[in-house]
Amino acid sequence: MTGRSALMAAALEARLRAHAPYSHFLVGAALEASDGRVFTGCNVESSSYGLTVCAERTALFKAVSEGARGFVRIAVAADASALTPPCGACRQVLRDHCAELEVILCNPRGESKVYQLSELFPHPFHDQMLS
Ligand code: THU
After folding, report:
1. Ligand 1: which of 23, 95, 105 to mutate, judged by most atoms within 8 Å of the beta carbon?
2. pLDDT recorded at residue 19
3. Which residue puts its alpha carbon closest to atom 6 of ligand 1?
């Protein structure tokens, strides 16, 4: 199992690969799968702004596309003095793939805070077609 500090270090490193020429807001994520693999992601902005993909979804989509199923925790690192929780869209997409997930927020100043996805996103949309 990857420790919290190793996962935060991976997220902090991933943020340096962000493609953020418009916002200049660098975000990195590191997602630990149940099989032990760690998938990193960064935000990738588009000149058509709405097509931008957040760091969290980049990491999740990389993981799912590599066959990972089931996730333990995600670390999210942003270049901000305040800790930056995942946006609403990312919360829904994370929840689509795991009922419970530890969400570790961190920044380059060494600050961090741990949440459960269920407290950040208590009433998710569920696709009725799947139940
Ligand atoms: N961003 C993320 O990568 N994750 C979040 O949870 C919030 C926002 C990115 C999207 C965009 O590239 C930049 O941060 C500013 O919104």
Report:
1. 23
2. 98
3. 86
Cα gap 11→95, rounded to integer Å: 20
pLDDT tens digits, one per residue of 25-58: 999 999 999 999 999 999 999 999 999 999 999 9
- Looking at the annotation, which residues are catalytic? 56
Residue 131 has pLDDT above 70, yes or no: no
Distance 64 CA to ligand 1 centre (A): 20
**Chain mean pLDDT for the chain:** 96
Q: Six-digit token pair at 101?
A: 């997930």
**pLDDT on residue 130:** 77
Q: How far is CA 3 from CA 30, 42, 73, 125, in A?
A: 12, 20, 10, 30
Which of 56, 52, 49, 57 shows the shortest CA–CA distance to 77? 56
Half-sphere exposure of 45 (CA within 13 A, CB side): 14
**Rounded-to-10 torsion of CA 68, 77, 117, 62:** -20
